[in-house]
Amino acid sequence: MRDVYESPLSARYAGKEMQFLFSPDKKFRTWRKLWIALAEAERELGLPITQEQIDEMKQFADDINYEVAEAQEKIVRHDVMSHVYAFGQQCPKARPIIHLGATSCYVGDNTDIIIMTEALHLVRQKLVQIITVLSRFAMQYKDLPTLGFTHFQPAQPTTVGKRATLWIQDLLMDIEDITHQISKAKLLGQKGTTGTQASFLELFEGDQEKCKQLDQKIAEKMGYSSCFAVSGQTYPRKLDSQILNLLSGVAQSASKFANDIRLLQHLKEIEEPFEKQQIGSSAMAYKRNPMRTERITALARYVMVDSLNPAITAATQWFERTLDDSANRRLSIPEAFLAVDGMLNLYENVASGLVVYPKVILQHLIKELPFMATENILMDAVKHRGGDRQQLHERIRVHSMEAGKVIKEEGGENDLLQRIAQDSAFGATWEKLQDLLQPENYVGRAPQQTEEFIRDFVRPVCEQYPVSEKSGQIYL
151, 183, 282, 424: which is the annotated catalytic residue? Predict the structure, then answer.
């Protein structure tokens, strides 16, 4: 349909798996599974519910009569009761016990937790796939010296592979946080209208132990270990804030990577993939704009801002609940996950096709190496020629400023080493100074750090969460 608004998160960015998790079909199937779990738990705790009724419900668990539910909702204006009605139409024997004692939040909130938890699993899987790709890249270029930057000003050299480990480390931190969140996932359970389980205390004729067991049984039947110990009508909306903070963290990591690639593409050192027939600019045909990494930063910015929504919602819930959370949550939570999914799909695509230009990288490095070499020159003059460190430092400072003038004001080449060679205070020949211009002598432990990091920190994570075949394996 071209005459109604369609979210670009669905149309352009998010993948099918994530879209399914937040689809109506996933939601309503989960509602039915929760109703079945409730009926089973109630039967096990002694309520007059038959196995025949439960079997009837299971028969139609995934066969949802949407047309009946939609027609009923137009009449009653209540989505949960419309689906209770539709389920009952298919299950006449079970109709009297469907949703027995429950509130709308029983299906709504428990389903939201289940979907968000499954979505976190998918996010983690994609993070591992990206890490696997970046790990191959890091190992391939662990020895390739490149100019390091602080404040985007030339600093000590590092290697291309070592720089990639910084991107990976951010993602490992995200995986650690997501894994912790998954490990403590718990359902709302069945708490009633204000969280007191009053309706179930009535159903179980005052048996408080059965009320407690009901929550535990529901959790286990849905694949969880526990439920929130206490709640109002809803699960604590702080959970939404915690989860979107995780997604904001992922967005921060992706944006850092994307911005680095955009800067490197400006320097012509590393580029994102560019298709043979791709157009970079409608006006400037020669351009290769970093469109994919720009899109990553755009989606990341959306997610980081969106994470404020559940924080404000959690902070403004009144007592046992208010309904000002509903419309906001319908937007903020699914769209954060969809945006992250689209962002990570782009991240993996870019990481898988990075184009490296070693000659440009070397050219930039050689232009700055004379400045980097001055510390070694200074130490050598003090250690082997008995020079005064403070005096020599001042002479290097003056020579460096003059060399910088030649570069910036005259557009000339860096002549710092020639100036030092001509300064008798250093006692260094031009040939000896030239020997200092070996980039690999200035990268410190970058190659070894890369190997150790991939072996000791990355590989265990990738082995714990195996990736799909398309992402390949890490080779050390």
Answer: 151
Which distant-in-sequence residues (6+ apart) come within 8 Å of 269 by Cβ? Answer: 146, 356, 357, 360, 361, 364
- CA 201 to each of CA 37, 192, 196: distance values in angstroms, whole numbers, following the listed order: 18, 10, 9
Token pair belonging to 296:
């990553």
449 has pLDDT over 90: yes
- Six-digit token string for 242: 């915690």
Residues near 231 by beta carbon (within 8 Å), at least 6 away in sequence? 188, 189, 191, 195
Q: Is 78 a catalytic residue?
A: no
State pLDDT tens for residues 248-301: 999 999 999 999 999 999 999 999 997 655 555 545 445 578 999 999 999 999
What is the pLDDT confidence band of residue 417, given thresholds at 50, 70 and 90? confident
Rounded to 5°, the CA angle 422-427-428 comes to: 75
Tokens of 37: 């779990």
Closest by CA position to 319, among listed 171, 193, 454: 193
Give me the mean pLDDT over the 217-230 stretch.
Answer: 97
Calpha distance 106→87 (Å, rounded): 16
Return the bridge partners of 159, or none: 145
The answer to whether 218 and 189 have CB atoms below 8 angstroms apart is: yes
Question: Which residue in the list 78, 225, 266, 281 is annotated as catalytic?
Answer: 281
Cα 22 versus chain centre, distance:
17
Q: Which residues contact 160 (CB under 8 A, 6 or more apart)?
A: 141, 142, 144, 146, 270, 356, 361
